[in-house]
User: Fold this.
Amino acid sequence: MTTAQSETMIPIVVVGAHLTGLPLNHELSGNGGQMLKAARTAADYRLFALANTVPPKPGMVREPGFAGPGLEVEVWALPADAFGRFVAKIPAPLGIGKVTLEDGTSHSGFLCEAHAVDSSTEITSFGGWRAYLKSLQG
Assistant:
């Protein structure tokens, strides 16, 4: 991104159905979004397959002190106006908060309300949503 673009683009960390090639990625790519990089979260995040979501979605929660593998994510950037429209459409129990990456940087990104994971399957050991989806195929 150029300096002018970086001033008007807001980074966002995605972990599930918005990843490149997955069903909701068009909500980023179709709104002027640019993929900045693939990354991993810090080790203190857990991932859950949320029940009854269409398309299927994960929920990521931070648990300080948890020592997991870190989770596969992508960092995208959206124009400021598109970011606002995008965030306004996010359904509960998902929301946007600060996500810390393994390199220590933090960006706005998808997090899940803690109560929603009580009835969900933990999939942290897969290391990310793609690996979990792949496990369902075989």
